[in-house]
Write a structure and sequence with these properties.
61% helix, Kinesin, elongated, single chain, 13% strand, ten-stranded mixed sheet, 758 residues, alpha+beta, P-loop_NTPase, 16 helices, coiled coil
Length: 758
C-alpha cells in the first residue's frame, strides 16, 4: 500500500476452499465459540464478480470497510461478509505483489541499460583517443612535408638563377627542374593520399559523432525514465540522486568529447589553412615558371634571330669561303639545343597547368569540407545546448522531488510528534586538534556523528548532522519548511543548545550585515516576508508583531525596551509569564512592536544585540551570559475564505552549557554561570520527565522551562540545534551535549495543531 501509481489491477477470483476454514479460525479466535458454519448448512455458492483495484483509494476503502449484520447474533451474515472481505484482501495482496514484481523488473532493466551504456561509452572514448592521436601524427607529417617542399622550391630557384647566368648550364638546369618537378609530383601524390586518409578519418569521426548522438538520445531517454520512477516512488529518490551524479559525470565526459571534436575541427581548419598556403605557393611557383618561360621564349626569339642572321651570313659568304663550316655546325647545334629547351619548357608548362588545376580542385574540396565540418559543429553545439536544457529540467525535477521528500519527512516527524534535533559542528581552528568524525558510508551519512573521548568512540544519530563545511544557507534550507509553518498557523520553536564557543549565536544570529553569514533568525524573517508577499496576492492579509527578551540570572529583561536602565534597576519583576487556554504564552509588560518589513526587524535585532548581557570567560572572549528569546507573532486573515490563522515563531539562543570548572568564572561571572547551569539542569529534568512519560513535568522549576512549556509539552513544532566544539579538550562537554540531544530527540510531545478560526 506504500506504492502509489496510476496503473490498475483487475483480479478474477474462483472458489477458494481454504478461505472458509481461515475465516472460521479467525472467528473462533475472536469469539471463543465453535464456528457457526460447522452447525448450519453452507449456503449455495453464488456467482463471483471480479474485484477491481484502481489505486490507493480502493485499498483504503477496503481497509476501512466494517462488518455489518442484521443483529448482534447474525453470525451467519457476518461470516459471509468476513469470507468476502478475506477474498478481497487476497486480491489486494496479489495486486500489490504484481505491482512490486513489475517495479523490480523495471529496476533490473534500467541496471542492464546502464551497464550497456557505460560499455559503449568507454569504447567510444577509446576510438576518439585513437583518432586524435592519428590526427596529431598526420599534422606532424604534413608539417615535415611542407618544410621539404619549401626546401625543394629554394633549390628550383637556385637552379633557375644558375641557368640564367650561364647558357651552357641549361642542360643541367633542365635536369634539376625535371627532378624537382618529379619531387613535386611525388609530394602531390602523397598529399592526395593523405587527403584521402583525412577524408576517411572525417568519415570515421562523423560515424562516431552519430553514435554519440544516439548515445545522448539513449541517455536522455534513460534520464526521463529515471524521473518518471522518481515521481512514482518517493522512497527511491536517494538512489536516483546517486544515479543523477553518475549521469552528470557522463554528461561532463560527453562535453569533453564535444570539446575534443571542436579541437579536431580546429585541426581541420588548420589543415585547410596549410592547404591554402600550399595553393598560394604553387600559384607563385607557376607564376615564376611562366615568367621564366617568357624569358626563355625571348631568348629563343633572340637565338632564332641570331640563327637567321647567321644563315644570311652563311648564304652571303658560302661561296666566298668554306672556313665558316665549323661556325655553322655550332650554330645548328645551338639551334637544336634551343628547340629541345623550348619543347621541355612546353612540357613543364603543361605539367604545371595540370598541377594548378589539381590544387584548385583541392582548394574547392577543402572549402566544401570546412563548410561541412562547421555545419556539423553548429549542429553539435545545438545538440549540446539541448542536452544542457534537458539536464537543467531533470535537475529541476530532482530538486522538486527532494522538496517533496522533505515535506513528506516533515509530515512523518509531525505525525510522530517527536522533537527534531539537528547537530552542527563548528570548524576546527588552526591551534586545535579534532575529535569528531562523520560516517562516510552506510545509511547514517548526513545523520550520524562519532565522538572520541578517552580513547572510546561514541556514535549518535539525529535527524540531520551538519559538518564544519556546512554554510549558513545549507542550515536554513533544512529548516525553511518548518519556518513556513508559522505562516500556516502553527507554533514553531527553534532553539540552540551547546557549550560556549560552539557556534550557537553564529547559527541563530550570525552577522546580519553580511549575506553569507546571516543566521537562522534574519534568514527566517526574510523568508517569512517573501512568502507573505506571495500570499498577499492570494487574498491573505498579515500582521506581524516582534518581541525579544533575555533571561539573565533567572530575571527577565526586555531587550526592546526604550528605558533599559530602569529595567536593570529593578523593573524586571513586572515581567510575568502566563499561558492561556489555547497554549499561547504571554509576558506581561513586555515591549511588542508591530513590523511591516525586514528592515524594521533588522533594526530591532541590532538594538537587542546591544542590550544583551555578554561577558568574558575562559571559553570565549565574548560569551553570551543569558538565554535570548526572539518571538514573532503572525496574524493572518483571508476575507474570501473567511479564515483566520495565528502562528508564532520562537527562536531561542541558550547560554553556554559548560560546567562551572570549565568556564573558570569568578565573581559576577560565577553567579551567572551557576544561574545558567541551574536553568539548563531544570531543562534536562523536563526533558527526562517527558521522555519517561511521567505524570508531573517540572516546568516551573525555572523561568526558561516555564517559558518553553508550550514548545516542549504542548502542540508546537519544535527543533533543537545541538552545537558542538570539535576540539579534543572539549570532548566531555560535547559528549554531555550529544547525550542530552539524544534524550530530546526521543521525546514525544504530541502532534502539532494548527491555530485556525473561521
Amino acid at each position: 500500500m506504500a506504492a502509489r501509481g496510476a496503473r490498475t489491477g483487475t483480479l478474477h477470483h474462483k472458489e477458494d476452499t481454504p478461505a472458509e476454514p481461515a475465516g472460521k479460525r479467525l472467528r473462533t479466535v475472536a469469539t471463543g465459540r465453535q464456528p457457526l458454519a460447522a452447525v448450519s448448512a453452507a449456503p449455495p455458492p453464488l456467482a463471483e464478480e471480479p474485484v477491481v483495484f484502481t489505486g490507493r483509494d480502493d485499498v483504503e476503502t477496503l481497509l476501512n470497510e466494517k462488518m455489518k449484520g442484521k443483529n448482534k447474533m447474525d453470525y451467519k451474515g457476518k461470516s459471509e461478509q468476513m469470507m468476502e472481505y478475506i477474498k478481497k484482501l487476497r486480491a489486494c495482496i496479489k495486486w500489490l505483489l504484481e505491482r512490486e514484481d513489475a517495479n523490480l523488473a523495471q529496476i533490473g532493466k534500467l541496471s542492464a541499460d546502464l551497464e550497456a551504456a557505460e560499455t559503449q561509452y568507454s569504447e567510444k572514448v577509446t576510438q576518439l583517443q585513437n583518432a586524435l592521436q592519428e590526427s596529431k601524427e598526420t599534422d606532424e607529417e604534413l608539417q615535415k612535408r611542407y618544410a621539404s617542399l619549401q626546401e625543394a622550391l629554394k633549390k628550383v630557384e637556385a637552379e633557375k638563377m644558375d641557368a640564367l647566368r650561364s647558357l651552357g648550364d641549361e642542360k643541367e638546369a633542365k635536369l634539376a627542374v625535371e627532378s624537382s618537378r618529379n619531387e613535386i609530383l611525388e609530394d602531390l601524390t602523397k598529399a592526395q593520399l593523405e587527403e584521402k586518409r583525412l577524408n576517411h578519418q572525417i568519415e570515421t569521426l562523423q560515424v562516431t559523432n552519430k553514435s554519440l548522438q544516439d548515445y545522448n538520445v539513449d541517455l536522455q531517454t534513460y534520464i526521463r525514465t529515471l524521473q518518471t520512477d522518481a515521481e512514482k516512488h518517493a522512497d527511491t529518490i536517494s538512489k536516483l540522486q546517486t544515479e543523477k551524479t553518475i549521469i552528470l559525470e557522463r554528461l561532463g565526459n560527453v562535453t569533453v568529447q564535444a570539446e575534443s571534436l571542436k579541437v579536431q575541427l580546429d585541426l581541420a581548419k588548420s589543415l585547410q589553412i596549410e592547404a591554402a598556403k600550399q595553393k598560394d605557393d604553387l600559384l607563385k611557383e607557376i607564376d615564376s615558371h611562366r615568367s621564366e618561360l617568357q624569358r626563355v621564349r625571348g631568348d629563343r626569339d633572340n637565338k632564332s634571330a641570331q640563327v637567321d642572321s647567321l644563315l644570311n651570313e652563311l648564304r652571303r659568304y658560302e661561296e666566298m669561303t668554306r672556313k665558316s663550316v665549323v661556325e655553322l655546325d655550332n650554330a645548328m647545334a645551338k639551334s637544336t639545343s634551343l628547340d629541345e629547351t623550348c619543347s621541355s619548357q612546353r612540357e613543364m608548362i603543361k605539367a604545371l597547368e595540370i598541377k594548378l588545376a589539381a590544387a584548385t580542385e583541392k582548394s574547392k574540396w577543402s572549402d566544401l569540407t570546412t563548410m561541412e565540418v562547421m555545419t556539423k559543429h553548429e549542429d553539435q553545439k545545438k545538440m549540446l545546448a539541448d542536452l544542457q536544457s534537458r539536464l537543467e529540467e531533470a535537475e529541476q525535477k530532482i530538486l522538486d522531488g527532494e522538496t517533496q521528500r522533505k515535506k513528506l519527512h516533515n509530515t512523518i516527524l509531525e505525525l510522530k510528534g517527536n522533537i527534531r534535533v539537528f547537530c552542527r559542528v563548528r570548524p576546527v581552528l588552526s591551534n586545535e586538534s579534532g575529535a569528531v568524525t562523520f560516517p562516510k558510508s552506510g545509511e547514517n551519512i548526513g545523520r550520524g556523528i562519532e565522538l572520541i573521548h578517552n580513547g572510546q568512540e561514541y556514535s549518535f544519530t539525529f535527524d540531520k548532522v551538519f559538518d564544519h563545511s556546512a554554510s549558513q544557507e545549507d542550515v536554513f534550507i533544512e529548516i525553511s519548511q518548518l519556518v513556513q509553518s508559522a505562516l500556516d498557523g502553527y507554533k514553531v520553536c527553534i532553539f540552540a543548545y551547546g557549550q560556549t564557543g560552539s557556534g550557537k549565536t553564529h547559527t541563530m544570529m550570525g552577522n546580519p550585515e553580511v549575506e553569507e553569514q546571516k543566521g537562522v533568525i534574519p534568514r527566517s524573517l526574510e523568508h517569512i516576508f517573501q512568502a507573505m508577499q506571495v500570499l498577499n496576492s492570494q487574498g491573505w492579509k498579515y500582521k506581524m508583531q516582534v518581541s525579544m527578551l533575555e533571561i539573565h540570572n533567572e530575571t527577565i529583561h526586555d531587550l526592546l525596551s526604550t528605558n533599559r536602565v530602569a529595567t536593570q534597576d529593578g523593573g524586571s519583576s513586572k515581567y510575568n509569564i502566563k499561558h492561556d487556554a489555547n497554549g499561547n504564552t504571554h509576558v506581561s509588560e513586555l515591549t511588542v512592536v508591530n513590523v511591516t518589513s525586514v528592515g524594521e526587524v533588522s533594526s530591532l535585532l541590532r538594538r537587542a544585540a546591544q542590550s544583551r548581557s555578554v561577558g568574558r570567560t575562559q571559553m570565549n572572549e565574548k560569551s553570551s551570559r543569558s538565554h535570548c528569546v526572539f518571538t514573532l507573532r503572525i496574524f493572518g486573515v483571508h476575507s474570501g475564505m473567511d479564515q483566520q490563522v495565528q502562528g508564532v515563531l520562537n527562536l531561542i539562543d541558550l547560554a553556554g552549557s559548560e560546567r562551572l570548572n570549565k568556564s573558570g568564572a569568578t565573581g559576577d561571572r560565577l553567579k551567572e554561570t551557576q544561574s545558567i547551569n541551574k536553568s539548563l539542569s531544570a531543562l534536562n529534568d523536563v526533558i527526562s520527565a517527558i521522555a519517561t512519560k511521567e505524570e508531573h513535568v517540572p516546568f516551573r522549576n525555572s523561568k526558561l522551562t516555564y517559558l518553553l512549556q508550550p514548545c516542549l509539552g504542548g502542540d508546537s513544532k519544535t527543533l533543537m540545534f545541538v552545537n558542538l566544539s570539535p576540539e579534543s579538550s572539549s570532548t566531555l562537554e560535547s559528549l554531555c551535549s550529544l547525550r542530552f540531544a539524544a534524550r530530546v530527540n526521543s521525546c514525544d510531545i504530541g502532534r502539532a495543531r494548527r491555530q485556525i478560526h473561521a
